[in-house]
Write a structure and sequence with these properties.
2 domains; 199 residues; mainly alpha
């Protein structure tokens, strides 16, 4: 009962969230304003609060914390515009990672249209591929090819295979292309085996 009451108070007055106490008063006031504005337009607040607290743990200056929170709020808005109003907080955060890796909002929208939700893993794999050195456009093209039929586990294995090839000295673009072909063939074979009796 006490916990329920506390959560109700926090929901009604976000500024009373005890997590804010880790911020100095000026930074706290500015972060609360950003979080409140984001909440009004339907963006998740937890990623913003976590970003502020991350800055506080690293002893970042208040100005830098506020700038980081403001930037994340903007990126979450861009991701939500691309992924739609039904996107989950996890999808929005993965969308931000993909955008920051170099994916375009149009790529996020296309991915949303091609893949059944949730698309969190597809977005994460896209961002991870770019972080491994794959050009953003090549990473996006590969994930979009796999998106309609690949399971999350298939996408993870594809990413791991590309990363292994890169670690062994293959150029990132070439590794992506080769593994995309192999993964696509594997998915096609699986689909054929799932339809016995059909040519």
């Amino acid at each position: 009962m006490i916990l329920t009451a506390l959560l109700l108070v926090i929901a009604q007055n976000p500024a009373q969230d005890p997590r804010y106490e880790r911020l100095d008063p000026d930074t706290r006031a500015r972060v609360v304003a950003i979080v409140d504005s984001a909440r009004v337009v339907g963006l998740p607040s937890d990623p913003l609060i976590h970003r502020a607290l991350e800055g506080a743990m690293k002893n970042a200056a208040g100005e830098r914390i506020v700038a980081a929170v403001r930037r994340l709020a903007g990126d979450l808005g861009t991701a939500r515009d691309a992924l739609g109003s039904n996107a989950t907080p996890a999808e929005l955060e993965a969308g931000v990672a993909a955008l920051r890796a170099g994916a375009t909002p149009a790529t996020l929208t296309r991915l949303r249209d091609l893949r059944k939700p949730p698309i969190t893993m597809a977005l994460a794999v896209l961002a991870d591929l770019v972080a491994s050195g794959v050009p953003a456009d090549s990473a996006a093209a590969a994930v979009l090819v796999l998106a309609p039929t690949a399971r999350d586990a298939d996408l993870v294995e594809f990413r791991r295979a590309v990363e292994r090839d890169i670690a062994l000295g293959a150029p990132p673009d070439a590794a992506t292309s080769v593994r995309l072909g192999a993964t696509s063939m594997g998915l096609d074979a699986t689909a054929r085996n799932a339809r016995p009796g059909k040519p």
